[in-house]
Amino acid sequence: MSAQLESHEVAAGWQPRHNPTLSPAGTGRAQFLHALLILALPPAGTVLAVALAWRWGLGWSDLLMLAAMYVLTIIGITVGFHRGLTHRAFQAGPATRAVLTVLGAMAAQGPPIYWVSNHRRHHHFSDRPGDPHSPLYDEERRLGRWRGLWHAHVAWTFRHRLSNTVVFAKDLIADPLVSRLNRLYFVWVLLGFGLPALAGGLLSGSWRGALTGLLWGGFVRLFLTYHATHSINSITHLFGSRPFNTREQSRNNAWLVLPTGGEAWHNNHHAFPGSAVFGLRWWQLDPGGWVVRGLARLRLIHDVRLTTPEMIAARLAQQPPAGEDLPERETDDALHREPAHKRSARSPPAPARQGETRP
Ligand SMILES: [Zn+2]
Ligand SMILES: [Zn+2]
């Protein structure tokens, strides 16, 4: 096991003697059932949605439900779960944190503390034994290219060792708000179906509109967001460019940037995991980064961590020989914080976290 720790693991009280996982792979019934339902139900609902659209026509409110729910839940995943909860790339007050967390939970990719633990484990063991969803390894076993693609995209959800949340997400377990939202996970998943049904019914003034709103804003949306997010685990660790010679095989894949809300600048992200913005060049579109900047401008979030051109240039100049490690911590801890005068006057400074030194 690598002795190099990421800053969030230090803050979470990681000790090398702690076990990063809690169960052998493939033993959880709940894990298997959740994986099966989230894989099979959305395409079934999508077939029904298309069949009904063939018969009744496709209403503008159905497309609106699909677009609105897609954008909201992808923001929940990339800004809420990933940049906010996992990497703590910004700080947010309780209301903003709650909204972003609920939106992420509506994407039905597991409760937030489970999601964060898996993702922090991914960063710690990236493309090595112990990574929950690498296309190169199934826990310990080396995988071929196509089998690895299938494993990282779908198969890992059915059989992976449960990440030890006490090791990887102690900070979130200790957070009463996130813990409460975590326990209500299935309520938020159902809300992700109920909201478009309600809105579709109200907009069209009919039960038929409620049904098609449910199908397009619930099932079709979930079918698309599932494969968009999972393509980050699979495709962006196999196909694309590698401007930064990071220790894993992460890639930037411009084709996937818009559907994933900017997540597909994945090599940038592994080079600077604590940065709230993944698009590091002016031409690298990053919708999640736009949302972060918008929320900061509205003073709903603060302490936004960003890279500077100097840091990017230094990181590019620092390329280690292929196959050698450049610990993420080295770049992550140096991230530039938004100047204090840009922070919200209403927001009290976040309490210092264990292992963190404030600039
Ligand atoms: Zn990755
Ligand atoms: Zn990450």
What is the distance, rounded to the nearest whole angstrom, between the alpha carbons of the first and last residues? 31 Å
Largest sheet descriptor: 2 strands, antiparallel
The unique ligands bound to this protein are: zinc ion
The counted number of beta strands is 6
Q: What is the molecular shape?
A: globular
Oligomerization state:
single chain
Number of helices: 15
Strand order of the largest sheet: 1-4
**Count of distinct structural domains:** 1
- SSE string: HHHEHHEEHHHHHHHHEEHHE
Average pLDDT over all residues: 86
Tell me roughly what share of residues is in helical segments.
40-55%
Bin the strand percentage.
under 5%
The rounded Rg comes to 20 Å
Instruction: List segments where confidence is low: pLDDT < 50 over at least 5 consecutive residues.
Output: 1-13, 338-359
In terms of structural class, how would the helical and strand content be classed?
Answer: mainly alpha
Structure description:
The chain is mainly α and 359 residues long. The protein has one domain. 53% of the residues lie in helices and 3% in strands. A two-stranded antiparallel sheet has the order 1-4. Strands 2-3 form a two-stranded antiparallel ribbon. Strands 5-6 form a two-stranded antiparallel sheet. Strand 2 and strand 3 form a beta hairpin. Helix 3 packs across helix 5, helix 3 runs antiparallel to helix 10 and helix 3 packs parallel to helix 11. The longest helix is centred in the first third of the chain and has 28 residues. The protein is globular. It binds zinc ion (2 copies). One zinc ion binds next to helix 3 and helix 5.
